[in-house]
Design brief:
Layout lengths: L1 H5 L15 H10 L2 E4 L2 H10 L11 H4 L28 E6 L3 H18 L2 E3 L14 H5 L2 H7 L5 E3 L4 E4 L2 E4 L3 E3 L7 H15 L1 E7 L10 H14 L4 H15 L4 E4 L5 H7 L7 H14 L20 H11 L7 E3 L8 H10 L3 E2 L1 H4 L3 H5 L3 H8 L12 H10 L21
Parallel strand pairs: 2-3, 2-8, 3-4, 7-8, 9-10, 10-11
Antiparallel strand pairs: 1-9, 5-6
The structure holds 2-acetamido-2-deoxy-beta-D-glucopyranose (NAG) (5 copies).
Length: 425
């Protein structure tokens, strides 16, 4: 348990594919996330109404929609021991280029902050990936509240929006960052030796690609807490994104219970995992092509991928599990993120189990939403960022808040809503 808590994993809401920790990722992929927000008033009304005879007796509806138990774990964001402010003198500038989907990049930002802190360096606002799959070049400025980010981490490290210019022989020019490729899950020692050396030599380094480039397990609780501060407090979506997602949540809530789910049954995930055999020959061709073009060569025995647990569950399988837990066909399902690969063939069985499906266009057909429904911003909108009813964090964070009991951060959030996370149970 401890080890898990120490983690600060976040997984690809979208492009979150990588090698290590794949099992966990696939779990995420399976349901990725279930977020259930309810109005407490409606909540109690529903309970009274459901003690009817056709509800299976062993299913306790109240329990079904209630918050997952934190098991007594408390939030761990604030420093608990002496945590000095960053030294006046910087060792240099750290630039990173994050890659992957929204969550993977978010996790990379947490790592970049920690890396800069460890090196006593100044962090240049991390660059986000405008990668081929998500076609999104909104960048950090387009998605996150930059001012809040810099301000809320001011006791942890210095952050600048861009690399400064220096004057040399009467000319001004930007410091040229020395490009380095960090090892996967690099230990802290890599940052304090190799990376630091280059930084001191060149004044700045540029780490690319930057995803899973700092070990998740670090035997230093203060470092892990810093990651939490970044994720839970410093990274806040821009106001217009929050507003859109709040309006979606409000509309959904006004009609009672709902569940948000990200069926990570998407092209990149399936191609990465090598899960081909349940698809038609034409679909397999598409997946294989995508795999070839986007991922490192690795021989997989496609036939056995599902059998050895490496594939996301199909939508139908997810639906059956949820039904077995007690959710019935009146449960409204908000489908987060992008389109399923394989389309109707895979969606139909899910719809048969849960006919009340919603997505952001069915909830809000406004032009403003349509204009913000693509790429990283689109997934940010789907993160669901409601008001005080749910922790004002994103879906993935709510998952993690179950791990970290961040929901106990009661001065900030009073959890009167229900958050269920299948992936963590
Ligand atoms: C579905 O479950 C709800 C409680 O969550 C209950 O009120 C409703 O009657 C059930 N519907 C059916 C068709 O069983
Ligand atoms: C960073 O600065 C602190 C003092 O503020 C010092 O203890 C630590 O060794 C420094 N780390 C590096 C990598 O220079
Ligand atoms: C939901 O299931 C019940 C039986 O449990 C059935 O009578 C009803 O028609 C179903 N509703 C929908 C919308 O499919
Ligand atoms: C959202 O739902 C509508 C209506 O059910 C559907 O036509 C549309 O394709 C869905 N959009 C996405 C992105 O799945
Ligand atoms: C949350 O709010 C409820 C009702 O508003 C209150 O009874 C409860 O004590 C609050 N919990 C915390 C941890 O503040």
């Amino acid at each position: 348990m401890r080890r898990r808590l120490g983690h600060h994993r976040q997984h690809g809401k979208q492009g979150g594919v990588g090698g290590r920790g794949l099992l966990w990722k696939l779990l995420i992929a399976v349901f990725v996330v279930l977020l259930i927000c309810t109005l407490s008033l409606l909540f109690s009304a529903t309970i009274t109404a459901t003690n009817g005879s056709n509800a299976p007796s062993e299913i306790n509806v109240e329990k079904l929609w209630e918050s997952a138990n934190s098991g007594g774990w408390r939030p761990s964001s604030s420093p608990r021991t002496d945590w000095p402010s960053p030294p006046k003198e910087t060792k240099g500038y750290l630039r990173v280029r994050c890659n992957g989907g929204l969550n993977q990049q978010r996790s990379a930002i947490c790592n970049a902050v920690l890396a800069a802190r460890i090196m006593n360096a100044t962090l240049v606002l991390p660059e986000l990936d405008a990668n081929s799959f998500w076609h999104d070049d909104s960048g950090f400025h387009g998605i996150y509240d930059v001012e809040h980010f810099i301000l809320s981490l001011r006791f942890d490290l210095r952050i600048v929006e861009r690399i400064p210019e220096i004057r040399k022989n009467g000319k001004t020019k930007k410091i040229k960052a020395f490009q380095l490729r960090p090892p996967r899950d690099a230990p802290i020692s890599w940052y304090t030796t190799e990376a630091l050396e280059k930084m001191e030599e060149h004044g700045a380094i540029y780490l690319t690609p930057f995803s899973h480039r700092l070990a998740e397990e670090i035997d230093n609780p203060e470092y892990q807490r810093l990651r939490c501060r970044v994720n839970y407090h410093a990274l806040r979506f821009k106001p217009h994104i929050m507003k859109l997602s709040e309006s979606i949540v409000d509309k959904l809530r006004s009609q009672g219970h709902f569940m948000a789910i990200h069926l990570r049954f998407e092209m990149d995930m399936l191609a990465f995992a090598g899960c081909f055999d349940i698809f038609s020959p034409a679909e397999q061709k598409i997946l294989k092509k995508y795999r070839m073009e986007n991922f490192a060569k690795k021989t997989l025995i496609y036939k056995e991928r599902r059998a050895i647990g490496k594939c996301p569950l199909t939508p139908e399988e997810v639906g059956l599990l949820l039904r077995a837990m007690g959710f019935n066909n009146s449960t409204r399902m908000y489908l987060a993120a992008g389109e399923l690969f394989g389309g109707e063939h895979f969606m139909k069985p899910f719809r048969a189990l849960f006919p009340h499906l919603e997505n952001h266009s069915s909830v809000d057909s406004s032009e403003e939403l349509a204009a913000n429904a693509r790429g990283l911003i689109g997934s940010a909108v789907d993160y669901m960022n409601p008001d005080d009813k749910c922790p004002s964090e994103n879906v993935m964070q709510i998952l993690h808040s179950q791990l970290e009991s961040e929901n106990m951060d009661s001065e900030i959030y009073n959890q009167s809503d229900s958050v269920v996370s299948l992936a963590e149970r």
